[in-house]
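Explain my protein.
***
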Amino acid sequence: MNTTRIRPPVLLLVAAAYATATGCASIPAESDPDPEQFAAEVDRRLDFDPNKRTCRTIRPTGSRLAERICKSNAEWAGIEQESRNTINKVQRDQSIIQGGGD
């Protein structure tokens, strides 16, 4: 008798994929974040000093070389907000193209 045995790593991958899919499906879509709320959240998380310089190591997609970039906390917060706005816009436009809308 030939029985198929599922290996633990494969089982973990399947379980992780299922948990991710069901977790994402249950999160309600939010409208654009309020800029004041976003700024307050950043302040709370970083004990925010907008003039303090923070360095991050950034590795561009497709590159093996990392680059150290230093900016003020206010600049980093602006970059993160701009990224969120771009992602929201792309997702909104995608929804409209597919006929989903609100």
